From TrEMBL:
GO annotation terms (biological process): positive regulation of canonical NF-kappaB signal transduction; positive regulation of cell population proliferation
Organism: Scomber scombrus (Atlantic mackerel)
PANTHER family membership: PROTEIN S100-B, S100 CALCIUM-BINDING PROTEIN
One cellular-component annotation, GO: cytoplasm
Protein name: Protein S100-B-like
Keyword Methyltransferase: no
SUPFAM superfamilies referenced in this protein's UniProt entry, alphabetically: EF-hand (SSF47473)
Length: 97
């Protein structure tokens, strides 16, 4: 999309940022391997998800996200993670719920 970011809404800018962050860490096939997912989470989501230090934790998360069993996380599978974390954090930003 070639629309200048200043013409986009806050939500559209957020969506572009999610896409850009995914591609910053994904390999040439536009998929995340386990190490790339760990790096993305530890670098980009450390305020919402505790840093992953244990391989078991990473293995469990990866298995839950890898819906097609190809041992890589594609963009649709990544969006599942984003949706889950956003939903879980919703109450932090809206304590009146």
């Amino acid at each position: 999309m070639e629309m200048p970011k200043e013409n986009m809404t806050d939500l559209e800018n957020g969506m572009v940022t999610i896409i850009q962050v995914f591609h910053k860490y994904s390999g040439h096939k536009c998929k995340l391997k386990k190490a790339e997912l760990k790096e993305l989470i530890n670098n980009e989501m450390s305020h919402f998800i505790m840093k992953i230090h244990e391989n078991e934790t990473l293995d469990e998360l990866f298995a839950d996200l890898d819906q097609n069993g190809d041992l890589e996380i594609d963009f649709q599978e990544f969006i599942t993670l984003i949706a889950m974390v956003t939903s879980a954090c919703h109450q932090l930003f809206n304590p009146t719920l």
